[in-house]
Design brief:
This is 3-methylfumaryl-CoA hydratase. Helix content is about 15%, strand content about 35%. It is α+β, with helices and mostly antiparallel strands.
C-alpha cells in the first residue's frame, strides 16, 4: 500500500486543535552565533539588546531523543504534527505579524496549534497541507504571531517530466548571495533541525532524488526579511513568504526587491533566473 493509499484525511484532521507549549531563553551565545552564521556586519547585541526578527526560528524547538527520529531525521510522525504517510515534507511558506522585538535575556514562550489539515492533488499526486500557528511571547508580551504552512507529498515518479520552474524578473534592488553546505549545516545546528535534506548529501540525492542539499526555506525567509529591513532602515511589521522551487547549496542566487505600494515585494532567484521564493513585507 502506497502512502497515498494509506492517507486517511479524517484521521489526520483529528489533529486540528492540538496545542503544544515550549519555553526557551534568548542567550548572548545564540545572538553571537546567529550574527556569525549570517556574517552580519554589526556586533552581536549584549543583554537587553534587540535580536534579528526571525531568530525565533532557533528558539523553543523540539528536542526529540535520537530514538524518536524518523528516517528523514525529523521527529517520527504522529506526535504534535499529524502522521501524514507521504515521504517528502517541506516548509512551503508562512506569515508573521510582529508586535515588537525579542532581546537578549528574554524568556520566550511558544504556543503552537494545529489549525488545519487539507488534502489536495497536484501534478505528482497527493499533497497534504498542514497549517500551524505559533504565538511567540516574552513575559506578558505577544511578540510574534506566525502561520506556518507545511506540505507533504510523494516522491517524483521515475522518468517523469519535471515541471519547469517559474522565471524571475530583475528587482529594483538585488544582492548576490551564496548558501554553501557549511551555512546549511550551521543553520540546521542553530535551529536543531535534523532534516537530512539539508546536510546529508547521500540521503538527499539517493533517497529523495534531489540534485543537492536543499537550502532551508526559513533561512531564505530570514535573508529576505533582513534585506527588507536593510532597504527601509527598519524591520517590517508584517512579512509573508512562499516557496516555489528548491534552492540548492551549489546554486548562485540573489535576493531581489521592488516597491509594492507602501511595502516591498521580495524574492530569491538563481543566477539562471529560476524563481525560488517570493515574499511581501509591509510597515505600519
Amino acid at each position: 500500500m502506497s502512502g497515498t493509499d494509506a492517507l486517511d484525511i479524517d484521521h489526520l484532521r483529528s489533529w486540528i486543535g492540538r496545542e503544544e507549549v515550549r519555553e526557551d531563553l534568548v542567550t548572548e551565545d545564540l545572538a553571537r552565533k546567529y550574527h556569525a552564521m549570517f556574517d552580519r556586519p554589526a556586533e552581536a547585541p549584549p543583554v537587553g539588546g534587540v535580536v534579528p526578527r526571525l531568530i525565533h526560528f532557533c528558539l523553543a524547538q523540539p528536542a526529540v531523543p535520537a530514538s524518536g527520529l524518523g528516517p528523514d531525521g525529523h521527529p517520527k510522525r504522529g506526535g504534535f504534527l499529524p502522521p501524514v504517510p507521504l515521504p517528502r515534507r517541506m516548509w512551503a511558506g508562512g506569515s508573521f505579524v510582529f508586535h515588537g522585538d525579542l532581546a537578549v535575556g528574554d524568556a520566550v514562550r511558544r504556543v503552537s496549534r494545529i489549525e488545519d489539515v487539507v488534502l489536495k492533488h497536484g501534478r505528482t499526486g497527493a499533497l497534504c497541507f498542514v497549517t500551524v500557528s505559533h504565538r511567540i511571547e516574552a513575559g506578558d508580551r505577544v511578540v510574534v504571531e506566525e502561520r506556518q504552512d507545511v506540505v507533504y507529498r510523494d516522491l517524483d515518479p521515475p522518468g517523469g517530466a519535471a515541471k519547469a520552474p517559474p522565471k524571475a524578473e530583475q528587482g529594483q534592488h538585488s544582492r548576490p548571495m551564496t548558501a554553501d553546505a557549511t551555512l546549511l549545516f550551521r543553520y540546521s545546528a542553530l535551529t536543531f533541525n535534523g532534516h537530512r535534506i539539508h546536510y546529508d548529501r547521500r540521503y538527499v540525492t539517493e533517497v529523495e532524488g534531489y540534485p543537492g542539499l536543499i537550502v532551508h526555506g526559513p533561512m531564505q525567509a530570514a535573508m529576505l526579511c533582513d534585506y527588507a529591513g536593510d532597504l527601509r532602515g527598519k524591520p517590517p511589521a508584517r512579512f509573508a513568504f512562499r516557496g516555489l522551487s528548491p534552492l540548492f547549496d551549489d546554486d548562485a542566487f540573489s535576493l531581489h526587491a521592488s516597491p509594492d505600494g507602501e511595502g516591498l515585494k521580495l524574492w530569491t532567484a538563481k543566477a539562471d533566473g529560476t524563481l525560488c521564493m517570493t515574499a511581501e513585507a509591509s510597515w505600519d
